[in-house]
Design brief:
Layout: H1 4-28, H2 33-50, H3 57-78, H4 82-86, H5 89-113, H6 118-129, H7 133-142, H8 149-175, H9 184-216, H10 220-240, H11 245-257, H12 262-286, H13 290-295, H14 297-322, H15 326-335, H16 341-352, H17 358-380, H18 382-389, E1 415-418, H19 423-438, E2 442-446, H20 449-457, E3 461-464, H21 470-475, E4 483-486, H22 491-504, E5 510-513, H23 517-526, E6 530-532, H24 534-549, H25 554-558, H26 560-570
Subcellular location: Membrane
Main location: membrane
Family: Belongs to the monovalent cation:proton antiporter 2 (CPA2) transporter (TC 2.A.37) family.
Length: about 575
């Protein structure tokens, strides 16, 4: 009835219309759009199988799915700059290894219990240890939590997992298909070949790409074209060399991650990335095999519950053991409770090599769908879930930070600062200088162990904890404070702090921070005296700079180096 191009057009139009409709309904009820995309795929698959003679999606969407995954992993690679890897730190590295060891071992044993076989159990265990960088970064970005402490920890773990996944895919490329005797030399040669390709990418990135992208950066269309050519070209070279498109796409993104144009590239690619993310999740929904779910209901249910519960518990307890607060540990663990896109790629590669059956691919796909859908709710509502369960959450907590003794005198007429990173560092410098003149003490509350250790080394009065914990608030003697400033942009935490301070009899000014204007209004209504909204303040600051230098705009360029040095010097934590 339709030729190939007409089938692609028809199926794409049908699925996007259904996805748009379900997306609008989901938005009206404040539901995650990711779930709407997956549901759209499931609906169109169900209709295609039972009611409407729609061409088989697998025939028409193979191309879209493959290029979509490649572009998604390219964007993930762009997030993985070498400088950020250096800043990940020992705690995140240890948490990643501990999570992989415990979850992988547990999943392997669980697979054997369900009689999947040793090799299949190995693939399942490997698939379960990876969490979805695409999902988590997208949801953290929506909530503006990428720069929060738990957001940084979560993203650090995900980036390390992505590197491990690439190594595993290279390993699979070197061991060969089932039935072919294992050849260690072939495995070594595969890694050498991969190393040479990575080296070539690094060389081109360092000595050619910087100049090329510097030339094309001023032309948005050319920048977009060169970016796409680089991403698809490198991924094709990797495929031709015996690896997968996905490894090449990921590493091509990593190659651009250290260029000064990475943010401009990300902005240009964002619309097409978002389109293919939608396509990816719709195709994921289309792949739902209801027969497989029926036949493997209990394994799918048990592993889904395992990922959604055991993963957060393991990560939260280990982060607590490393010295992070309960809230940070809990939210970090909760954010990792899903199966990754890399997991799907690994099991598909395993099936293509004949190591595992298509049944295992359907099994992991089903677990991925359920965990991605459920974790979307968990991540979006993580703060609310924590506040409801806070008193019931029991995790290992070992305070490794040496807190300086805070005397009762330090908690009299004191200046309280909550959050000493970023904006808080400037405020702390000012308060420290004023305290010397007035003889008042400065008390800082922070839940980042590394920041607290730096503050203790600087002889500051520090309370290691989270203001969402009433026990921490009780220690601060808020009734006798002179000033309260919080740089934490959480509406509920700030509202509770204001309420607690008022109930304790505090009468001084309260200064808060907020990402959103509507949250700022609520904080004023709750009793805050000043609410700082970065976007609002930033706009006014730029206007003030322009006003001061309007007759000599070149002075702005002259002040660049001084401002840059100030930013570098502020990065003390």
């Amino acid at each position: 009835m339709f030729d190939l191009s007409e089938r692609i057009y028809f199926v794409l139009a049908t699925i996007l219309i259904i996805a748009a409709g379900i997306g609008i309904i989901s938005s009206l009820f404040s539901q995650p759009l990711i779930l709407a995309y997956i549901l759209s795929g499931a609906v169109i698959g169900f209709l295609s199988s039972n009611f409407v003679a729609i061409p088989t999606p697998a025939e028409t969407f193979g191309f879209f799915s493959q290029i979509g995954i490649a572009l998604i992993l390219f964007m993930v690679g762009i997030e993985l700059s070498i400088s950020e890897l250096k800043n990940i730190g020992k705690p995140v590295f240890l948490a990643t290894l501990f999570h992989a060891l415990i979850i992988g071992t547990s999943a392997f044993i669980l697979s054997l219990i369900f009689d999947f076989g040793i090799l299949a159990s190995f693939y399942i265990a490997v698939a379960i240890i990876f969490s979805s960088t695409v999902i988590v970064i997208k949801l953290l970005d929506q909530q503006r939590d990428t720069n929060s402490l738990y957001g940084k920890i979560t993203i650090g773990i995900l980036l390390l997992q992505d590197l491990f996944a690439v190594i595993i895919l290279m390993f699979l490329a070197g061991i060969g298909p089932k039935g072919v005797p294992f050849n260690f030399l072939n495995l070594v040669l595969t890694f050498i070949k991969g190393g040479l390709l990575v080296g070539a990418i690094w060389f081109i990135s360092k000595f050619a790409l910087r100049r090329i992208f510097a030339y094309v950066a001023s032309n948005s269309e050319l920048l977009f074209l060169c970016t796409m050519a680089w991403a698809l070209g490198v991924s094709s070279i990797f495929k031709f060399s015996g690896f997968s498109f996905e490894i090449g796409a990921f590493l091509s993104g990593v190659a651009l991650a250290n260029l000064p144009y990475r943010y401009s590239i990300s902005a240009r690619i964002a619309p097409i990335r978002d389109f293919f993310i939608i396509i990816f999740f719709i195709v994921l929904g289309l792949s739902i095999d209801f027969a497989a779910i029926k036949n493997m209901f209990w394994p799918i249910a048990v592993f889904s519950v395992f990922v959604l519960t055991v993963t957060p518990v393991v990560v939260a307890n280990y982060l607590g053991y490393l010295g992070f607060g309960k809230r940070v540990a809990f939210l970090s663990g909760l954010s990792l409770a899903q199966v990754s896109e890399f997991s799907l790629i690994i099991v598909v590669v395993g099936a293509n090599l004949g190591h595992i059956s298509g049944e295992i691919v359907s099994f992991i796909s089903s677990v991925a769908i359920f965990t991605i859908a459920a974790s979307s709710y968990l991540i979006i509502n993580g703060g609310k879930i924590y506040r409801v369960l806070r008193s019931r959450i029991k995790i290992i907590e070992r305070n490794k930070v040496a807190i300086g003794n805070i005397s009762e005198k330090d908690l009299e007429n004191h200046l309280l600062l909550v959050g000493a990173e970023q904006m808080g560092s400037d405020i702390l410098d000012y308060l420290k200088n004023k305290a010397k003149d007035t003889g008042q003490s400065v008390v800082v509350v922070d839940f980042n162990p590394q920041i607290v250790e730096s503050l203790v080394a600087g002889n500051f009065n520090v309370v290691f904890g989270d203001i969402s914990d009433p026990e921490i608030l009780e220690q601060l003697n808020l009734a006798r404070a002179k000033l309260i400033i919080t740089t934490v942009p959480d509406l509920v935490d700030n509202t509770n702090l204001i309420k607690f301070a008022k109930e304790e009899g505090y009468t001084g000014p309260i200064i808060c921070a907020s990402y959103w204007l509507h949250d700022a209004v609520k904080l004023y209504e709750a009793g805050a005296d000043l609410v700082v909204v970065p976007e609002d303040v930033g706009g006014k600051h730029v206007a003030r700079v322009l006003s001061d230098h309007w007759d000599n705009l070149k002075a702005i360029k002259k002040a660049k180096s001084k401002r840059f040095e100030e930013l570098i010097s502020r990065k003390i934590f």
